[in-house]
Design brief:
Its main location: endoplasmic reticulum. GO terms for molecular function: iron ion binding; L-ascorbic acid binding; procollagen-proline 4-dioxygenase activity. By secondary structure, the protein is α+β, with helices and mostly antiparallel strands. It contains 20 helices and 18 strands. A nine-stranded antiparallel β-sheet has the order 3-4-5-15-11-18-9-8-6, covered by helices on one side. It has a five-stranded antiparallel β-sheet with strand order 7-10-16-13-14, with helices on one face. A two-stranded antiparallel ribbon has the order 1-2. The protein starts with a helix and ends with a helix.
Length: about 550
């Protein structure tokens, strides 16, 4: 595509970048990951605001043939205007976060390239270079990570592609719609990672949106659509390929090669041939995401699998001091969520002041959350846990000491055996698939410390949509409520694992989820939680084999 055409027709700039390769950080500094947490993305929004001002100055200096370039700027400014009143709310919308990352990773490089062809435009390029030194731009991994997160939300909550692209989440429109370029790039990224089943609907949505553009009948547009026909044909999606082929030919019937393609597609469909990438790459039979266990987890996240009214009837809410003397005048508000095993949510535990202070401290040292490996090797990142976290000794802050005291009062346990506080933030589609908090037989832990006896999750924020804590075997979904604590025991009194406590963090659909985790070990809990006279772990053994 010529430089002249790019200046005249910037709507195609994103596509040019995709087909010609991606640019990384110009300064070559170490990689900073954005998609796994909302925390830290405020810098991206701030630097893009500066970049918009720089680009606006450049546009004003040109005073000629800039209407289309101005339209690109205006479209992004609309997004920024939507973010002015509520930056956190804007960034916690997965569609907004994806589009921000995509723009900074690809669109702005395209703007640079269109400016670079004129040597008199060095002021803008110098400003862009300064902006790149000021903050790490998102990488291709960030864009792919955010794309995968959107697909995760799409699957978990059964969202229609058209609704998701229009900014509608669970029937509520939270923000601006995605452009046809946004949808195409998303489909392209999914194609690159061979997720062809999800590639198809996003490319189809991209073409439906492109058909509504004023330039949808231009020759270059039709050439581009032919490229997308090839995508569908190679994947084996002959029906969509044929529909798009017929659309192109209805506008320009003189495309002889495309007529041959139409004949081929019609023959493949009439003969019922199943070939192409979608059919050649068979799903892995051992893939956990195809298991009944994973399907049960998704059902709980959607609220489709839950306790019956009869099972809920014995549950109650009450004030409880837990026999702590100084709690007699200020007892906890305890809501029973499940009786065996006992899972409770205690409301209005920590103050707004404490929560905000803990989050501010955590933002200074957060890194991608890791998981322990079953083979005993060092912990590492994994796609089934997308978040950022930081660890703190309680002595580092009076606010964290307050959380420690609450955990002791709620649990009645010896907090000298508690692990350090973990503060975590979940980003675009952030989640943690079903897991146990206790260490399994394949994991090692110091015998002197013992296994993880109890878990306390401090909810440091509300979550508008999704982000619940799911217990698949208990058919229980707990909605994060700011200031509350979710508590349960991971082990039976015999200190054997309670496999019924397998739980997960459902993907965050809308919002920024902040939590503080406190785990208490078995060590020195003889008086606080003595063993029973009889074994009590058999009741949960049947769940061990469901994984």
């Amino acid at each position: 595509m010529s430089a002249e055409w790019k200046c005249r027709f910037p709507a195609f700039l994103c596509t040019v970048i995709v087909l010609s390769g991606f640019c990384g950080n110009a300064n070559g500094d170490e990689y900073i990951e954005y998609f796994s947490s909302v925390a830290g993305m405020e810098k991206l929004l701030a630097v893009e605001f500066e970049m918009l001002n720089d680009l606006q100055n450049y546009i004003n200096s040109m005073q000629k043939q800039i209407d289309l370039l101005q339209s690109e700027v205006d479209a992004i400014r609309l997004d920024h205007q939507a973010a002015v009143d509520d930056v956190d709310g804007y960034l916690s919308n997965p569609v907004n976060a994806y589009r921000l990352i995509k723009r900074l990773q690809s669109d702005w490089s395209a703007f640079e390239e269109s400016v670079r062809i004129d040597s008199s435009r060095t002021d803008f390029l110098s400003a862009m270079a300064a902006n790149r030194r000021q903050v790490h731009f998102p990488s291709k991994e960030d864009v792919i990570g955010s794309a995968v997160a959107l697909v995760r939300l799409q699957d978990t909550y059964k969202l229609e592609v058209a609704e998701l692209a229009s900014g509608v989440l669970n029937g509520i429109k939270y923000g601006p719609s995605m452009s046809w370029q946004d949808c195409f790039l998303l489909g392209h990224y999914l194609y690159e990672i061979q997720d062809f089943n999800h590639t198809v609907p996003w490319l189809r949505e991209s073409m439906e949106l492109l058909k509504n553009e004023e330039y949808d009948k231009d020759a270059v547009t039709l050439d581009f659509m032919e490229t997308v026909v090839t995508y569908h044909q190679e994947m084996g999606d002959f029906q969509t390929a044929l529909e798009l082929t017929n659309y192109i030919l209805s506008i320009d019937a003189q495309r002889d090669q495309l007529r041959d393609t139409k004949y081929y597609l019609e023959r493949m469909l009439s003969d019922g041939v199943k070939t192409g990438l979608m059919h050649e790459i068979a799903p892995n039979r051992g893939d956990y995401h195809l298991s009944d266990d994973y399907k049960r987890y998704e059902q709980v996240c959607r609220g489709e699998l839950q306790l019956t009214p009869t099972e809920e009837r014995p549950l109650r809410c009450r004030y409880d001091s837990n026999n702590v003397p100084h709690r007699l005048l200020q007892p906890y508000k305890v809501e029973e969520l499940h009786l065996d095993p006992r899972v409770v949510q205690i409301h209005d535990v920590i103050s707004t002041h404490d929560m905000e202070a803990v989050k501010r401290l955590a933002q200074t040292r957060m890194s991608r959350s890791q998981v322990r490996n079953l083979n005993g090797s060092a912990a590492s990142t994994a796609n089934y846990r997308i978040s950022k976290s930081a660890w703190f000794a309680y002595e580092e802050s009076e606010h964290m000491q307050t959380m420690n005291r609450h955990m002791g009062d709620i649990s009645g346990l010896n907090m000298a055996s508690a692990e350090h506080l973990q503060v975590a933030n979940y980003g675009i589609g952030g989640h943690y698939e079903p897991h146990f908090d206790f260490f399994t037989d394949n994991c090692t832990f110091k015998a002197s410390e013992g296994n993880r006896l109890a878990t306390g999750i401090f909810y440091l924020s509300d979550v508008a949509e999704g982000g619940g804590t799911a217990f698949p075997y208990l058919r229980l979904l707990v909605k994060p409520q700011r200031g509350s604590v979710l508590f349960w025991h991971n082990l039976h009194r015999s200190e054997e694992p309670d496999y019924r406590t397998r739980h997960a963090a459902c993907p965050v659909l809308k919002g920024s989820k902040w939590i503080g985790n406190i785990w208490v070990r078995v060590r020195n809990q003889d008086r606080e939680r003595p063993c029973g006279l009889l074994p009590d772990h058999e009741v949960s053994l049947e769940y061990k084999h469901l994984v």
